[in-house]
């Protein structure tokens, strides 16, 4: 199976239903595994998620994406945090059972998907699958809603002890470099930063930068794969 044709499987969330997961397989042996969740406004089939998953998998990392229950059921409004966390828990258990990873396992996501992964990382479930996790990858962390810096989503962050990779655009309206860097540097967990100069919440940069979307996504995929294999 190549990264261009991800294998799909179903994760049971009984009694709530089930969600679909997609495996972008790496050609490398005993490669790291990254389970990556989508943001609030789009599901795992959004071109941003597919493009990033493919680029990372081509760099020697197995990537699994999945839908939260609300997107699987084609609802627009995200589920409440406990349901999102329940989905994360079930998906990781299903992925570990399905793939039996031998390399490093990390969780993370784009925007809201990463935030919910950080909730889990701050209070790691005692499930055997979660005990395998040794890395948190945050792509555009939503520190606060746009224009509402007083509503910072940070109360859980000090509970995180595992290594963190934070990739953030410097003009992200959900949290600029000046806002997110001091918050994450204050944590006891080891944190590596990658700031996309001029990048917005989706890492898009101004045309004047001379960088294309492919350039930026390649750079982000390089950082993620290098970090996971280090």
Main pleated-sheet profile:
8 strands, mixed
Helix-strand pattern, N to C? EEEHEHHEHHEEHEH
CATH topology, which one? Rossmann fold
CATH class: Alpha Beta
**DSSP helix fraction:** 25-40%
User: Per CATH, which architecture?
Assistant: 3-Layer(aba) Sandwich
The end-to-end distance, rounded to whole angstroms, is 25 Å
**Approximate shape:** globular
Report the radius of gyration as a whole number of Å.
Answer: 16 Å
Q: Report the β-strand fraction as a percent range.
A: 15-25%
Strand order in the largest sheet: 1-2-4-3-5-6-7-8
Number of domains: 1
Q: How would you classify the helix and strand content by structural class?
A: alpha/beta
How many H/I helices?
A: 7
The CATH superfamily is identified as: Alpha/Beta hydrolase fold, catalytic domain
Uncertain segments are none
Q: What is the tally of beta strands?
A: 8
| Overall mean confidence score, pLDDT | 95
Description:
By secondary structure, the protein is an alpha/beta fold. It has a single domain (7-229), classed as Alpha/Beta hydrolase fold, catalytic domain (Rossmann fold, 3-Layer(aba) Sandwich), CATH 3.40.50.1820. It has seven helices and eight strands; from the N terminus they run E-E-E-H-E-H-H-E-H-H-E-E-H-E-H. The chain has helices at residues 47-57, 69-72, 81-99, 112-122, 128-131, 177-185, 213-229, and strands at residues 7-12, 18-24, 33-37, 62-66, 105-110, 133-139, 164-169, 191-196. An eight-stranded mixed β-sheet has the order 1-2-4-3-5-6-7-8, sandwiched between helices. Helix 1 (47-57) crosses helix 7 and helix 3 packs across helix 4 (112-122). The model has no long low-confidence stretch (mean pLDDT 95).
């Amino acid at each position: 199976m190549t990264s261009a044709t991800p294998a799909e499987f179903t994760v049971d969330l009984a009694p709530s239903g089930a969600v679909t997961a997609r495996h972008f397989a790496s050609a490398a042996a005993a490669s790291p595994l990254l389970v990556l969740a989508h943001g609030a406004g789009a599901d795992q089939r959004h071109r941003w998620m597919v493009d990033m998953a493919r680029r990372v998998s081509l760099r020697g990392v197995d990537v699994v994406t999945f839908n939260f229950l609300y997107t699987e059921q084609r609802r627009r409004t995200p589920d409440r945090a406990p349901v999102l966390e329940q989905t994360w828990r079930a998906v990781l258990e299903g992925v570990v059972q399905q793939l039996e990873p031998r390399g490093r396992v990390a969780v993370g996501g784009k925007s809201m998907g990463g935030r919910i992964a950080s909730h889990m990382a701050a209070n790691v479930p005692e499930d055997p699958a979660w005990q395998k996790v040794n890395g948190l990858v945050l792509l555009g962390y939503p520190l606060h809603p746009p224009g509402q810096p007083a509503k910072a989503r940070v109360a859980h962050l000090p509970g995180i002890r595992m290594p963190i990779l934070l990739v953030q655009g410097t003009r992200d309206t959900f949290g600029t470099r000046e806002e997110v860097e001091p918050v994450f540097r204050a944590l006891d967990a080891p944190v590596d930063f990658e700031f996309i100069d001029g990048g917005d919440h989706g890492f898009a940069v101004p045309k004047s930068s001379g960088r294309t979307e492919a350039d930026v996504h390649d750079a982000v995929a390089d950082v993620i794969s290098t970090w996971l294999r280090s």
